[in-house]
Amino acid sequence: MRISIDHRTRYTFSEPQARVVQLLRMTPQDDGAQSVIDWSIDVDCDARLRRGTDGYGNISTMLYVDGPVDHVEIVVRGEAVTYAHAGPLTGTVETLPPVLFLRQTGLTRPDEAIRNFVSGVCGAVASPQRRAETLNIALFERLGLRAGRSPKARTAAEAFAQGEASTRDAAQVMIAAARAAGLPARFVSGHCLDGPNVRNHRSAHCWVEVHVEDLGWFGFDPSMGRQPGETYVRVAIGLDASDSTPLSGTRMGGGIEELDVAVHVEAGQSQ
Amino acid sequence: MLSRTASCLYWLGRYVERAEFTARLVEATLRLDALSTRPSGEQAWLSALTVLGVEADYLTTGQAVTQEAATHFLTLDTSHPGSVVSCLDRARDNAKAVRTALSREAWSSINRAWLLFQGRAAPGDTQDTLELVQQAENETRGFDGAVGRMLHNPSSWFLKLGESVERADSTARLLDVKYHLLLPEGETVGGVVDRDQWQTILHTVSAVNAYRWLYRDGLQAAPVIELLVLRREMPRSLVASCEEIVAMLGELGTVSGAQGEADRLARRRLAALREARVSSIIAGGLHEYLTAFLHDNAALDLAIARQFRFL
Amino acid sequence: MNGAFDEIRGFPGDGAGRPEFAPLTKWLETMPRAELERRQQAAEAMFRQLGITFAVYGEAEADERIIPFDIVPRILTAREWTRLSAGLEQRVFAINAFLDDIYGARRIIADGKIPEELALCNPQFRPEVVGAHPPHNIWAHICGIDLVRTGPDDFWVLEDNARTPSGVSYMLEDREAMIRLCPELFQMFRVMPVDSYTDLLHQTMQRAAPVSAGGNPVCVILTPGHYNSAYYEHSFLADTIGVELVEPADLEVDDDRVWMRTITGRVKVDVIYRRIDDDFLDPLFFRPDSLLGVPGLLAAYRAGHVSIINAPGTGVADDKAIYSYMPDIVRYYSGSDPILPNVETWRCREPQALQYTLDNLEKLVVKLVDGSGGYGMLVGPTSSKAEIEKFRAVLIAEPHRYIAQPTLALSTVPTLVEQGVAPRHVDFRPYVLTQPDGVKLVPGGLTRVALKEGSLVVNSSQGGGTKDSFILADEGAVSC
Known about the structure:
Number of strands of chain C: 20
Shape of chain C: globular
Shape of chain B: globular
Order of helices and strands of chain B: HHHHHHHHHHHHHHH
Strand content of chain B: under 5%
Oligomer: heterotrimer
Radius of gyration of chain C: 23 Å
Number of helices of chain C: 15
Number of strands of chain B: 0
Helix content of chain B: over 70%
Largest sheet of chain C: 5 strands, mixed
Number of helices of chain B: 15
Largest interface: A-C, 29 and 29 residues
Structural class of chain C: alpha+beta
Helix content of chain C: 25-40%
Number of domains of chain B: 1
């Protein structure tokens, strides 16, 4: 399947900024389930873009903008071809062994409630793969999905307690739960043609990968209660949302910023 | 040099100078109030507060204007940002942040001045207070000396630049107080009280002897004004401070190879001061003249900050 | 203290003390106490005037304390030092090899020498720097190795400091004070000079530069600011070496290069000796919630345009949980047995070790795996029953956070205290620099002394002081 993506981010500043520095993790890579055909990052002002990789093997792009600027618009456009696949991921860039992804972070550290939930849902399930599947479905059923982006960086425990989750929250709760169940799990950011945010265009998508010993990494999407397939484009991974987030940045110049995001994911036409 | 370092040095110069000036003013006022044969009490302290522009801040503390309360406010009150102790605090803070740009001697003199005020609760009686402010003056003069002995490099130039900008400010304020200070009922211009007031001004800037040396006649307004505004020989005069500012900016310019708005403002002002005559200053109104000078000084301060990227 | 080895007087019952140090013993005996005190006060006055101060966390009057200085030096002979240097060289070589491996091929894990989870799930292991290649594969350019001693030839490594070890300014300033105040001691002993440390440090910085920096790399020292407890040291080092002392706000990253902001424009920076924790280096990569740091610094580092000393991520090598594997690590990379042994360590994360620890709390020192500065630890022998019981509960709740070690009979050195000159426990931190052609040492280090009688805690934040450490060019005094 051919999927085209148009991901626009616009910052508007109340005061002119002396400098803006952004870290983008917005460029996908080829793997066994996707081929990137064409991809570009454009900025609407004088800027320097430097491409590199981060510790997880993601493609990172540093964006340096000179001031004074009162707005910055970043347009990421591209197309990928995806393939239906079954079984574990293949052909992904792996810089770290799965065991690292057992490490809980400030955002994923499970509380009593999550731990109880884990033992309640999959205490009796022996197969690791089945455990991950069970958790994924159980969380999908348990968490009410909230459209759009999370207002602030909630922890997994906070989101779980409130019972209502953005896609990001759901992924982090799933990670917390999987790790609590002894399964390495990681955060994935990317795009989805039929994801929950595809109609409101307000946000990209995110999900989870869980490692099953001797088999490999498997994708799970707790906001949809399914495993990612042909409609997904995988972009970046990390221990939690903060280190795989598409865009993070700093600016020098005070005032407040307004952020406007528009994501259009469409089935591409063959040319 | 780092922009932050330059900014810290400049402000270090300003705060040390401010601490010294405040100490001098307290000393001169003490002499006028407590040691002269004609104590002037409240009036003297009110004028000291006015010179420093902190009269309103003082009155909000609700204290009466007495020697004890005013000296405490001006020397040891840590909640008052203009007190000697607060100025030394901030001076030392800046010094600490740029220790590597200072000579050991310069650092230890500022540190000693700071230690002098640590843990002091009350200035004590007149004698104790005099001792305290004189010690403070000694230490800040020691700092001045240490700066003079530092290598002639951008560090010492920024320090001196800050000192001169602050000094110009203080001298202008000091002179301007005559505008605010009403003579008591029945006193005449040129009378005893009027002369006392001019005497205090000269004392504050250590110019009593210089005045006698340069002007053989008795104390009068016009020569005092001339001395403090226009005489280059007088280190604290406006013209001498402005010369130093131009000189330091010039030195910095030769190193950086660049000149800017600060150079232009400073040179223009110095040229005007060199042309000025005391009679025309008095004719145009001393207060108006000084107000314009203080305004220019603030503009220069901002231009310096921009030119060297303090912001 | 009963039975402890005194480095000057020898074991109790050794009579007149170690003959090679006899002149010092005599000096201590003949010097009037008032004169010793006068000199000590003169030294402290000098430190205060120079502003050699430090801050103690959690104290209101944190700002202005000096670390107590003791006028009686500790002495190591040339032979003792030779053995120590060989051990330090071996250990620091292994630390760098370990870091390069753990962030690269991870052979040591594949070969089963250390548990994978222990290394990788350790918060000090930084996935953010995986794939970075510091020039010459040096990660920990500056290590401070904490040693303790229990007998004439018994030195133990207590702790490796591979992040931003501090205290080297005390090594240098204590020597200054001793030369000034006790010149006669330098007649008695041929003491090897330490003042080449700053040159060596500067050289270490220059030689760590990226190749692209060219022949004259711009080096800076990065401090969190003048409110930091070790600020004096940062400014002292910058001053002595002649490099800029910068704060994060003085640096900016553009085009994957680091620049410092100066009065005439920006200047490219090639080497940063940072005295800031990894967490606060770059908010874009490490701590998104932090306002501190230099945004983009890690990108510049990963791109190879700037060198960071020590490299981000070195904490995984000095973590107390890893510490217990150091003998294996040294053996693995150096191919020979460690010259300097570890102190026996029980990892409380292991049930048997925990049980042993709980059964012997009153005899053991229990430490936080990720603690420092003497906080959050239990010194069994000097603690009350109530303190031990309180700690027991803490330990049972989170055993994985603790390790336990025996309380060693730490050596003592005569020290001037209120009661006169009396033995006090000491430790020793030499500073070990690594350059492309190998490990470099200056003959010296920081001696910390526990001023309280019987105390084993030498941390300055817990009432410790410092002493000068004489390393001799020969085996004893010049003239007896």
